[in-house]
Specification:
This protein has a seven-stranded mixed β-sheet, sandwiched between helices. Strands 8-7-9 form a three-stranded antiparallel β-sheet, with no helix packed on it. Strand 2, helix 4 and strand 3 form a beta-alpha-beta unit. It is 36% helix and 14% strand. The protein folds into two domains: 93 residues, Orthogonal Bundle (Hypothetical Oxidoreductase Yiak, Chain: A, domain 1), CATH 1.10.1530; 203 residues, Ribosomal Protein S8, Chain: A, domain 1, CATH 3.30.1370. The longest helix is centred in the N-terminal third of the chain and has 19 residues. Helix 1 packs across helix 2. The chain is α+β, with helices and mostly antiparallel strands. It is built from ten helices and ten strands.
Length: 357
């Protein structure tokens, strides 16, 4: 089979954890981060899952990421807080922020927790889906881990992909989970195409001459395009203010390219929000009303040539359950890379008998 045999999710978590431990990350932290990285692949966010292991290991090896951070709450009110990630792996600070936001929402109706001193933390869906599964609404956003976008009409790279995500409970198998970059495509998708040797579609990037770029190997020669032109630019700036400036984190020219620079702290900024519908007098009725409206939308007659209407998050629960039971099938390029990283870390490879890897 072109993509090889599946790997059990627990075996993949164990491999990622051992690789992180080889770079000085304590076992408990390594296991937590590995679990979240594999969780990203389980739910289909493959550009932000174990694919990112090489980048994380490079920053740990280069000194740009602290392997033994002390995550702390440095500012707090009954409904808000700021978490300092101490330049550790970003998943640790974001998981702490998510859990604290949920706790505050349970106590006061809303919890808004910012992060500074963070790092790349995988897909934001990891930090909003748990809210919806707990009957809450969730929101999260981040300053991108490198600047790939100029201000609208400009030519200097001062803005990242600046993603944002939302979640909401709905009766039925799938909560609403919407996770997007504020660019037409996330840089992770372009890096995945580069790893696979595949071209980019037109409309994702343009060169400094304004012409379309389709070769992912030339990504450094051009710009990512914001969604909706000036609207996407404005949304990116708003996220930068709330996730970066508000938390004392990097924004604009202060952003460090976490791939090119493996020695400098990134001071990545993020935030996580949880909202309890009960605080608005609706409680469990929110999930029921959301499901009713979603059913109307799915029942909408498709336009000619279009698939039936889907809501963000549809099918993810079943997909995740299948992958937990049957394992994850990774593409050959990623399998080769993980085996190579195993050699770099002097640990056993995850695909020892895979000829393609």
């Amino acid at each position: 089979m072109a993509d090889g045999s599946p790997i059990e999710t627990e075996d993949l978590i164990d491999f990622v954890a051992r690789a992180l431990m080889a770079r000085g990350v304590p076992k408990a932290d390594a296991t937590s981060v590995a679990g979240l990285m594999v969780e990203a692949d389980i739910f289909g966010y493959s550009t932000h899952g174990v694919f990112r292991l090489r980048q994380y290991l490079a920053r740990l090896a280069g000194g740009g990421c602290n392997p033994t951070p002390k995550i702390s709450v440095v500012q707090e009110t009954v409904a808000t807080a700021v978490v300092d990630g101490d330049n550790g792996l970003g998943h640790l600070a974001m998981a702490a922020a998510r859990d604290l936001a949920i706790e505050k929402a349970r106590n006061t109706g809303i919890g808004w927790v910012g992060v500074r001193g963070g790092n790349h933390a995988g897909p934001l869906a990891l930090y909003v889906r748990p809210q919806a599964e707990a009957g809450l609404l969730g929101m999260a956003a981040a300053v991108g881990s490198a600047n790939h976008v100029p201000p609208y009409g400009g030519s200097d790279l001062l803005i990242g992909t600046n993603p944002i995500a939302f979640s909401a409970p709905a009766t039925g198998p799938d909560p609403f989970v919407f996770d997007m970059a504020t660019t037409v495509a996330a840089m992770g998708k372009i890096k995945t195409l580069l790893q696979r040797g595949e071209p980019m579609p037109e409309g994702w990037m343009v060169g400094r001459d304004g012409k379309p770029l389709t070769d992912p190997a030339r990504k450094s020669e051009g710009f990512l395009l914001p969604i909706g032109g000036p609207k996407g630019f404005g949304l990116s700036v708003a996220i930068g203010l709330m996730a970066g400036v508000l938390n004392g984190a990097a924004f604009g020219s202060d952003v460090v390219d976490f791939t090119k620079d493996t020695t400098s702290p990134t001071n990545t900024g993020q935030f996580v929000v949880a909202i309890d519908p009960a605080a608005f007098g609706i409680g469990d009725g929110f999930a029921e009303e959301a499901a009713r409206v979603f059913s109307e939308m799915r029942a909408s007659t498709p336009l000619p040539g279009h698939d039936p209407v889907r809501l963000p998050g549809d099918g993810k629960t079943a997909l995740a359950a299948s992958r937990r039971e049957n394992g994850l099938t990774l593409n050959a390029a990623l399998r080769r890379d993980l085996n190579a990283l195993a050699g770099d870390c002097d640990i056993s490879p995850p695909f020892p008998n895979d000829p393609a890897a």
